[in-house]
């Protein structure tokens, strides 16, 4: 298999972490989706990363699809097949992806020329980020993991989202939610997280 993506994309990083956690044989191909000679548009008509080329040369794209496929390749699976546990897991995944979307949208808006920036849009994204972090803190379990008694996809995706928030929108959310900060510190110390940390991301 080959995974195409950038070093800084949090959506790509989710797949890279899962590959390392499950010790799956997969080549990582650094690819800039915006480059004129990028291979990405030929693989994914949406021109987005990550893209996974499977061993039979078929292609999967969009991080939730890729993550679920990778998870199914090797036990133990981190995404339950059915029941309430699956819906709980998918809710965490949706929240984490929504948090990432808000951080990315805020970042892109803030990079526009000052005269073209929308203060209202930036404010809306920051409100989404605040509410997402508050929800996570309120629903944090008493143990080391968000769900179950072991590391799962919920921990993976939410930790990636919070680390990316630190990377692209650094602010003192830990002051309001210290226990969530402690939880993230434990997840961030896992080798798969350390090995995939983007260039320039400072460890908090």
From TrEMBL:
Transmembrane segment boundaries: none
Span of domain GST N-terminal? 1-78
Pfam families given for it?
A: GST_C_2, GST_N_3
Task: Cite the InterPro entries for this sequence.
Answer: Glutathione-S-Trfase_C-like, Glutathione-S-Trfase_C_sf, Glutathione_S-Trfase, Glutathione_S-Trfase_N, Thioredoxin-like_sf
The GST C-terminal domain covers which part of the protein? 82-204
Gene3D superfamilies recorded for this chain? 1.20.1050.10, Glutaredoxin
| Protein name per Swiss-Prot or TrEMBL | Glutathione S-transferase
Organism field: Candidatus Muproteobacteria bacterium RIFCSPLOWO2_01_FULL_60_18
């Amino acid at each position: 298999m080959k995974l195409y993506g950038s070093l800084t994309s949090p959506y790509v990083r989710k797949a890279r972490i899962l590959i390392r956690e499950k010790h799956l044989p997969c080549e990582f191909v650094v690819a800039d989706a915006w480059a004129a000679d990028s291979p990405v548009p030929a693989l994914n008509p949406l021109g987005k990363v990550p893209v996974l080329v499977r061993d039979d040369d078929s292609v999967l794209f969009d991080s939730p699809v890729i993550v679920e496929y990778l998870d199914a390749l090797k036990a133990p699976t981190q995404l339950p097949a059915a029941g309430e546990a699956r819906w709980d897991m998918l809710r965490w995944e949706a929240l984490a992806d929504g948090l990432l979307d808000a951080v990315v949208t805020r970042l892109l808006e803030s990079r526009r020329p000052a005269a073209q920036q929308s203060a209202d849009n930036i404010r809306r994204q920051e409100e989404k980020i605040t509410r997402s972090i508050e929800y996570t803190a309120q629903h944090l379990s008493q143990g080391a993991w968000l769900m179950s008694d072991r590391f799962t996809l919920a921990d993976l995706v939410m930790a990636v989202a919070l680390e990316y928030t630190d990377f692209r929108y650094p602010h003192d959310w830990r002051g309001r939610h210290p226990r969530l900060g402690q939880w993230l510190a434990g997840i961030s110390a896992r080798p798969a997280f350390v090995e995939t940390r983007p260039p320039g991301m400072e460890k908090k």
